[in-house]
Amino acid sequence: MYQISQKLSSLQVPNLFRELSLLPENSMRYGHSVASRAKFLLLSLGLIFLSACSDDFEEVSSGGKVAITLSNESVYLSEVGGQYTVSAKMVDKQGVAYEEQPTFQWQSASSSVATVDQNGLLTAVAFGQTSISVTSGELSSELQVIVSDDAVTLLGTARYEDKEYGASGFVLQQDYYKAIRHAKVSVVDSNGLAVGGIDPVYTDSEGNFQITGILNSQHFIYLSASTDISLGLDLSVRDRDAALYSVSKQFDVGQAGSFTLDIPLSSEASGAFNILDVFTTAAEFTLQYSNLSKVTLSAFWQENNSDGTYFCSGVDSVYCNAGKGVYVYNAINGDTDEYDDDVLFHEFGHYFLQEISRDDSYGGCHALSSTDLDLRLAWSEGWGDFFPSAVKKWMSDDAQRSSLLSTNVANLYSYIDTYQNTQQIYVALDTLNTAYASAANELAVAKVLNSFSLQFGMESIMSVLTGYLPSVTTPVNLESFWDGWLQVNSPTSANKNILLSYLNERGVYYQEDNFEADNAINVSRKISIGNSETHYLYSDQLTTDIDYVAFDVVGGSSYTLSTSNLTGGADTFIRLLDPIGNPLIIGSTAMENDDADESAYYGFDSLCASSRVKNNKTALSSSLTFTAPSTGTYYAELRTTPDVEPYLSAGRYGTFTFSVVLN
Prior knowledge:
About 15% of the residues lie in helices and about 30% in strands. The protein is an alpha+beta fold. The chain folds into 3 domains: about 15-30 and about 305-505, no CATH class; about 30-165 and about 180-230 and about 245-260, Immunoglobulin-like (Sandwich), CATH 2.60.40.1080; about 515-660, Jelly Rolls. The chain has a 6-stranded antiparallel sheet. It has a 5-stranded mixed sheet with strand order 1-25-26-24-21, with helices on one face. Strands 5-12-11-8 form a 4-stranded mixed sheet, with no helix packed on it. The longest helix is centred in the middle third of the chain and has 22 residues, at about 375-395. It is elongated, with a radius of gyration of 32 Å. Mean pLDDT is about 85; it is low at about 1-50 and about 50-65.
C-alpha cells in the first residue's frame, strides 16, 4: 500500500504497501506460503555456505514413498545425566509431513550408554557411543548418540560487509564490516541437521557469541537471519518461499578461541543481513517509543525479481504470498534495495503505523511531487518518508547507536534511494523546497513531522500516534494528527504559533482566517462583484467552520458564485441565502452546490497510467449560477461539504478562493 517514489511509485491495492511497480487495481492479497528443505549453496568464500531453508533441519531418510525423518542425525551429550529430546515425523516422498502421525517405537542399542523413552527423550548413562532406532511398521530411521565430556568452548564473532551511502549514492569502502547483532547461531552437521546437545545461542550487540559443546571438524557454525525473541526482536529475512536465509562456516578447532564468520559483499547473504540489521535498529526504536513488548516482522528478499519493495499487511497468492512483512524483490534492471537503508526504514515505518497507531490509507499511485493525493495516502507516505530521519536522528543521539549508521550525519534528515551505485532519489527534509506543499503532498507531511520532532521531540509525536489516532472517528491524516496534537500536548499560545509556522511554510493553514468575526448574516463586510478572497476551512473546536459572505446584486441580473484554488484536500459547499437569511429557492430548485464536477475527483493519471483520486484545485470545488429575483443584499454560506458520507480521501479543512462574478 504505500511508498515513496518519484519513479512512478505504485498503484495501490488493499493490504499492500508498494514501492516502484504498478499493479492491477483492487487485486486482493490472500494466499499461502511454502517452506523448503535445507539447500546449501557453495559460495566463493570456500568454507562458508549460504542457505535459504526452513526453520527445522529435516531430511528424508529413504527414497521410498514414505519415510521417517528425525530432527537430528546425531546427538552429543556432554555429561552423564544430560538429556535431549529428538523428534520424528512420517513424511511423503516430497518430504511433507502427514497430518496424522503414527506412534513411533524408540529403542537404544546400548542402554548402558544412553536410554530413550517413547517420547524421544534421550538420557546419558555413561560415556560412550550408541545408536537410537525409531520404527513404525516396516519403516525405520536411526541416529547416533555420543556421551563425552570432551567439550570445546568456541568464542566467535559474526560480521557482514555493508555499503555506506550518501548524497551521491554508495560510497564503497574496503572492509566496511558491521556486527551481526542478536542473530541466532546453531551448530549443524554436514547435512545441515542440528547437532543435538548444543543449544542455539544469539550474538550480542557487538556480534560476539559463545558456544560450548562437543565440536569436531564435521560440524558447521550456522548463522540464521533471525533475531532473539527474548529481547523483543522477532525479526527474520527469508526468500520468496518464506525459507530463512542463513550462512554456515565449517568449525576449525584451531580457531575455537577466535572464530570469525565474515560475510563479504561478494556473498549474496550480505544483503540479507543488512536488511536484518536495519530492521533490528528500527525495531529497537519502536520498542523504545511504544508499549509493544515484541516487534514481529519478516522481510522477504529475492534477487532478480522486478516486483519492487513494499510492505504487505495481509496475505495473497501473488505479491504477498508469505503473509505480512516487507518484500524486497530486487528489480532486474539493477534497482536493488537490500542496502538502501532509507527505503527499508520507510517500509518499516508502515509496519510501525499499523502496529502502534492507525493507518487508513488505501494507497494509490503517487509521486513525491504530487500535491493532490488522497489525504490518507499523503499521511501514510509522509510518515514513511519521515521515519528514516526519525530513526537516524535517534541513532545519532547515542554514541553506541551512532556507530551503526551507514551514512554520514549530514544525511540524518535525508531520504536516499539508489540505482545501482548512484543515487536516484535524494530528498533533504531540513532544506526541502517550498514547492512541496499541501496536506495532500507526502513530502510536505514529512517536513512538518520532521520540524515538529526537532522542535518538541519524538515523545510528543508518539503521544499523538499512540494516545489519540487509534480511536479517532474521522480518517487518519495530517488533519487528525493536528487535532490530536492540540488535544494531547495542549501547546501554549507561543508553541502553537511555532507549530503553525511550520504548517504555513508547507501551505497548510489549520487556523482561523481573517473573516471569522463575520460569521453571521448580519455582517457589514461585503465582497465586491468581480473580486475574490481566500478562506480557511478550520475550527479548533472540531466543529464545522461556516463562513458567510454578503454581496449586493441587481434584480434580473445573472451571477455566478464559485470556489476555486482548493488546497489541502478541501471539499467545499455553497448555499445561497436571500436578504432575510433564508435558503434561496428559485422555482423548485435550491440554490446550492456541492461539487461543480464530481466526476473530476477520480480520473486517469498519465504519469501513473491508471486512475486515482485527485485532491486538486478544482475537483471538489463548488459553483452555482442564479438570476437575482430582486435588488438587494444576498449571502453566500461557505463550508465543508455537509454530505452524510463525504469523501474519506478529502478533508474537513483546507483552503479555497471565493468569488462572485456578474455574467
